[in-house]
Fold this protein.
Amino acid sequence: MRTNTSNQLRSQKIAYSALYLAIALVLPFLTGQIPQIGSMLCPMHLPALLCGFTCGWPWGVAVGFLAPLLRSVMFGMPPMFPTALAMAFELAVYGGVAGILYKKLPHDGSNGGQSTKNLYLALITAMVCGRLVWGAVRFVFAGLSATKFSLEAFMAGAIFNAVPGIILQLILVPVLVSALKRAGLVLNK
């Protein structure tokens, strides 16, 4: 009986992860009609975060890592080096940290109403860790290609140019995770 339930849960996680990966591949088409705005909204970040929250860290890591690489190979955007490669590490961390913290922190209402705070704590920690990893990878790639990646470039890419996407993530992800949880679609337990 346990094996059947375990296999069913694994099959559900595979299906959900495939859906999040598909959303990550398609969503930039909706926001990318104006490239400056599309890149500011960070559309591939949302499915990576949601996958981590709903399916768990291994699935969030996989979807986060694969999405920018597949999108680069399939559609030529983002460019593979350094953008898609750096994003792959960033989004893998997004999905991984979100999944780990969501599972570890109480979010079932048993902790006196702290579930929303813990959801935001997991989200913000994942976002900060992902951006730091993105900066570290870009710095390494700059060294390998004999170019510069300054603190100003990091601040512009990780924060200032991404403010609309950051705001969107802070608003949309908690709402979606809460709705998915109420619908019984969160498998990261």
In short: The two ends are 19 Å apart (CA to CA). The mean pLDDT is 92. The chain has eight helices and no strands.
